[in-house]
Input
Amino acid sequence: MCVTQQRSLFVCWKGDAVKNEKRFIAWSTDSRDVKDVCASIDRLLPELGFAGANLVDPHPDPIKKKEAVLRAVWGGSELRNERIRNTLGMEFRPLDVSLHDCVEFLLSIGKVEPKSKLKPES
Output
């Protein structure tokens, strides 16, 4: 499984840069394997002392059997965004920045308590 920063945003732009109301899908092309997300959290927010997580696949066996096929499909996909970036002059935030902000949000607003390797669990 791969985490890809996506924006479900379709841009309809009228003006000189885009003719005939062309549509673009706006997505970052950064991706990271799910197992590496926990390591990224620990790297981006070392003060948490994040203990990581055990990966659990909740999917039923028939779905699990298709994993290799689905990984091959996504692994062979080339996600590109230079067309929208060049046309509209836009850039995407790095996945690390989005991941950092997401964790900060979950801690402050969502009141999520991370597993910490720095403090003993009760």
